[in-house]
User: Fold this.
Amino acid sequence: MNNSSLYSIALNLIDKVGGVKARQLLSYCGSAEAVFKTPKAKLLKIPMVGNKIVSLIMQKDILQQAEAELEKAQKQDVQIVAYTDAYYPARLKQYADAPFVFYIKGNVNLNAERAVAIVGTRAATEYGKAFTEELVKELTPYQPLIVSGLAYGIDIAAHQASLKYGLPTIGVMASGIDVVYPAPHLGTARQMVQQQGGVMTEARFGTQPDARKFPARNRIIAALADAVVVVEAKASGGALITANIANDYHKDVFAVPGDIHRKTSEGCNNLIKQHKAHLMTKAKDVAYIMNWELNGKNKSVQQSLLFNELPKNAEEKEIVVLLQKQPQKTLSLDEISWQLKMPLSKISACLLNLEIQGYLKSLPGKKFTLI
Assistant:
């Protein structure tokens, strides 16, 4: 790892400096290294930065702590990825609450063309576990990255089914990368690392899991996926937190309906009833809503656009070029507006024109994809 990584890790280790403040500091100082070399008076002029944070930045041993993290990473074959690194996943990077640094073990492509999060209750029934395995098996032709949280119940069933059917799978943890929780899943985690999958976390080495860290972990699960599937869920719990975050992120959420008298079905049934999730009973439901095609049909259609003329209107051309750069050729209305720094009213008008001209089509969740 280079010198830049050391300073990014150091910045991430500072208490009271989360992803938002870290990016704020970078935007004013130019780099993580520059943050530590900027005079105190200049740091104090940066919005959201006060005396307490500046004194923490100036503490003498913070770089030594970062060096210790790097040494542990090298010994344990762990990669520490900063927000400014090329490897940082595009899906995660677009959100304001994205972690500034995360730790990952395994050779997994977080920018896979397709990614599905499968989540659910820890108290999963045999029906829920069996459905999860069947879902992963049916998704195999689409070759998605399967994302989950390595927890008991539906999560571990999704990871184990991915290993069984040869799909890459990433487990997002609420503990340090060296503290696999729950401990009985250590063997599965090792298999994931060995089979083109892995585990990741935003927590530093040695961090023990606690209740407060799991909701934060769930935002990463939601962000890394194109679609979030809730297999079984009680009326409240982590799976519903993930589903609600996914809705806030304008992701497509799917829920499996269940027995109205069973507690583990209550959360899924409520998501469907409240129009917060698509009802699904098989993998093809996900593929249909997500506009996935087999045999490279989508790819050939997308490539054909390269040989046609782009829109003459400058703003419409920007939108098409932006969509061409995305792994799924798809973005939400808010994401397009944010990335192009255009007002929603202008974006909406351009999208309507592009749809009429046959460049793109709209999808559920205020998303738009090239055709």
